[in-house]
Design brief:
- The protein is α/β, with parallel strands linked by helices.
- The protein has a domain at 5-85 and 128-187: P-loop containing nucleotide triphosphate hydrolases (Rossmann fold).
- The chain has helices at residues 15-24, 36-41, 50-60, 73-91, 100-110, 121-138, 155-162, 184-187; strands at 5-7, 29-31, 44-46, 65-70, 145-149.
- It has a five-stranded parallel beta sheet, with helices on both faces.
- α2 links the parallel β2 and β3 (44-46).
- α4 (73-91) packs across α6.
- The longest helix has 19 residues, at 73-91.
- The chain is globular.
- The chain starts with a strand and ends in a 28-residue tail after the last helix.
Length: 215
């Protein structure tokens, strides 16, 4: 399969900001991808299910580059609490309206349907640190992996250098979905955007790698 770029940072680490920045650099981008066709059409896929399925996607797409986004933990927890407070009703395994792949990704990383309080600061801290440790262990000593904090100066230049893109000057990273805002990707118009639900030869089928999917 064609090499890709997967952005595997957790939600609220800047996945929308990176997605928009790479659109502006000429990449086709899917912010979330729930069909095989979405993955095939996009140069870059970010957010769900990449942050939960990076190991499976690594096997499906050889020679892919992985970008892990990180963020100061205290700020991430506060932002994640605001996001989950909005999302929890739609993440419920049976009654929630979100796509089953999205629900599975959140369940995998945050156990939203099994813990007593998914918004608990300590729980989210543990989730963040566990995910970070797992990612760092899996990609240890690999040259196709970049860890970057978007709030650091020249983070976009660092990403573009990693991707082998030439630029004449340092570029600033756009910062979207700040505070309680969570819809910047939907509101952003660009011809290189790829639908998360793209229809293709296998209709809207996802990959078969034998992970349980909530209904």
């Amino acid at each position: 399969m064609t090499a890709k770029i997967f952005v595997i940072g957790l939600p609220r680490t800047g996945t929308t900001s990176v997605s928009v920045a790479l659109l502006e650099q000429g990449f086709s981008v899917a912010h979330q991808a729930f069909t095989q066709q979405s993955f095939h059409l996009a140069d870059v896929v970010s957010d769900a299910p990449c942050f939960s399925d990076y190991q499976q996607l690594d096997l499906l797409f050889p020679n892919t580059k992985f970008i892990y986004l990180t963020r100061p933990l205290e700020k991430w927890v506060i932002s994640m609490q605001m996001l989950l407070a909005k999302m929890l009703p739609q993440l419920a395994p049976h009654s929630g309206k979100f796509h089953p792949i999205l629900k599975r990704s959140f369940e995998n990383c945050f156990q939203v349907s099994t813990v007593e309080n998914p918004l608990c600061k300590q729980h989210l801290t543990n989730c963040f640190l566990r995910h970070q440790q797992q990612v760092q262990a899996y990609f240890a000593n690999r040259t196709d992996f970049l860890q970057v904090n978007l709030h650091e100066p020249n983070s976009l230049t660092e990403i573009l250098d990693f991707l082998g893109c030439s630029q004449q000057q340092s570029l600033n990273m756009p910062h979207l979905n700040i505070g309680t805002h969570v819809a910047s990707w939907d509101e952003y118009s660009h011809p290189n955007k790829i639908s998360s639900h793209a229809f293709g030869p296998n209709r809207r089928k996802f990959f078969d790698y034998n992970l349980p999917t909530p209904s």
